Amino acid sequence: MVMVAIGAAKLRHWWDTPRFVAVAILSLRHTKRSAGNLHAEVFPYASHFFSLTVWQRAEDIKRFATTGPHRMALRMRERLTEASRFHVFESEAMPEREVALSAWYAALPAPLQRQMPVMMV
Is a pLDDT exceeding 90 seen at residue 71? Predict the structure, then answer.
């Protein structure tokens, strides 16, 4: 079993993109160097920026989430994004991107699902 974390952020303004990308790059580099990380990627989808990470244990995610560039990214979230949602789940193996996106969408509350564009996964 592995732990999968998938999150989405939608920027408030297009001009925040360079700052967001800089923070995302630092956070992604930090993720890949963190103990217990098996996979990390950031990608755009449905007018959001998604991060998908896979970890050996839940403790690894908790340790990572509260340190370094990721902690800085969380503090900037309010200023840069209008929406930010994360979902963490267990998986038998590293899921394909489409599977993780489907799990993220299914975990949204119904009112938020109606606000999202149809997830083509």
Answer: no
